[in-house]
Amino acid sequence: MNDLTVTRQTFDEVMVPVFSPAPFVPDRGLGSRVWDTQGRDYIDFAGGIAVTALGHGHPELLKVLHEQGSKLWHIGNGYTNEPVLRLAKRLVSLTFADRAFFANSGAEANEAALKLARRVAVDRHGEQKAEIISFTQSFHGRTLFTVSVGGQPKYSEGFGPVPGGITHLPYNDIAAARKAIGAQTCAVIVEPIQGEGGVIPADPAFLKALREACDQHDALLIFDEVQTGVGRSGYFYAYQDTGVTPDILTTAKALGNGFPIGAMLTTHELAAHFKLGVHGTTYGGNPLASAIAEKVVELVSDPKVLEGVRSRSETLKGHLAKLNARLGLFTEVRGKGLLIGAELNDRFRGRAKDFVTAAGQHGVIMLMAGPDVLRFVPSLIMPLDDMAEGFARLEKAFGELVGANAQAASR
C-alpha cells in the first residue's frame, strides 16, 4: 500500500459504517477554532461532544503531554505510577469520594459503577437484591450492559438477550421513583442533566427523592457525570449544586480534554467490595492519560474558571435569545453552565440534523441531542469574540434554512 492519500470518501471505503461524519475533515485546532484539510476555519460549539473543555492545543496540556510522553506512557496494572496517584488525590480532595478507579471512557466508568453496585448488594444482602433503576431517554454508554441500562431502546435492540434486572422510569417523576425503588433495588443511576436525551436538567426535588428512597431501601445512588462533570455545569461536578451527594460518581469526557480517560469515584466502604482481582483494566490509569487529566483537573477546578463558565452560560443564552427573536426557532432553551439545549419548535420538529449540517456549511461545528434539540457544549474558556462570531455564522446558516423552509411551504 503505497498511496495513503485520504479524503472523506476514504471513510466510506475502509471504516465500519456506525458513524456518518460531516463532509469536511478536521485537521487542526487551536482554542475554539478548528481548520479542515482544505484550510477552512470553523467555530467549535461541540467540543468533541463536551470533551475539549479547555479548547484545542492548550499550551499547558501540550507541555504535560510532551514531558510525560518522554518519560513513561504505559506500565500496566501490576504497578502504580505517580501521575495516577496525584490525579486520584486531586479528585478525592475536590469531591465526596475517598477512592478512585480509572478506566478509558465513560462507558467503562459506568460499567465499573454498575458492577460495584451489584457486588455490594450481593455481599451485603444476597443475590436477590440486583435491580438497577434507570430513566427513560438516559444514556450511559455503548457496552451491552450500559446500553441496556440506558433508557433509549434503539441502542440495545438487535444484539440478542440483554442483561436482566433493569427497570426504566420516567425522568423527574418523583411518584414513580418512590413506588419503584424497593427492597430488590441495588442501585439507581441518574444523570443530573440528561445530555443525549435532550439536555434536560433534573429537578432538585427529584434527586432529593432518589437519595431518600435509596437510603430507605439500602440502594446505592450513582450519578453519571460523564458529560456534566469537570466544570461543564459551572461547578466542578454538577452534584455540588444539587444538595444531593451520590454514593458513586462516574466521570470521563472532559477529564482528559480529548485524551481517553474515565473514572469511577466512591467511598472507602463501598470500594472495599472491589477486592483484589474483582475488576480490572489494562490501560486504565496509565501515566500519560493520568498526567494530562491531572493538569485538566488543576486548571478547571480554579474558581475563576468555574465562574467564567457560569458567566459564559448567560452570554450564550443571550445569543440564543437574539437568534430566536429574529428567526423564531425554539420553544425552550435549557441546561446549566455550558451544557445548553435549544429545543426546536413545531415548524422544525425532527430536523435538528439539518441545522447541524447547515451550521457546518457556514463554518460552525455543533451537535444535536436527539432529533429536536440543538446542543451547545463549547470550551469552558471559549473567547467571547469567538462565541459572537459563531452566532453570526449561525444566523446566516439558520436564516437560509428558515427561508428555504418557507419557500417549500408556500409551494
Automatic annotation (TrEMBL):
Q: Which PROSITE patterns match?
A: AA_TRANSFER_CLASS_3
Q: Which EC number(s) does UniProt give?
A: 2.6.1.11
Chain positions recorded as pyridoxal 5'-phosphate binding sites: 106-107, 139, 224-227, 282
What name does this protein carry?
Acetylornithine aminotransferase
Species for this entry: Paraburkholderia translucens
EC top class, in one word? transferase
Concerning its family, UniProt says: Belongs to the class-III pyridoxal-phosphate-dependent aminotransferase family. ArgD subfamily.
Task: Just give the chief location class.
Answer: cytoplasm
Pathway(s): Amino-acid biosynthesis; L-arginine biosynthesis; N(2)-acetyl-L-ornithine from L-glutamate: step 4/4
What single Pfam family name could you report for this chain, choosing any that match?
Aminotran_3
The answer, when asked if Acyltransferase is one of the entry's keywords, is no
Q: Which GO terms describe its molecular function?
A: transaminase activity
On this chain, the residues bearing N6-(pyridoxal phosphate)lysine are 253
Instruction: Write out the residues that bind N(2)-acetyl-L-ornithine.
Output: 142, 281
Q: Which UniProt keywords apply?
A: Amino-acid biosynthesis, Aminotransferase, Arginine biosynthesis, Cytoplasm, Pyridoxal phosphate, Transferase
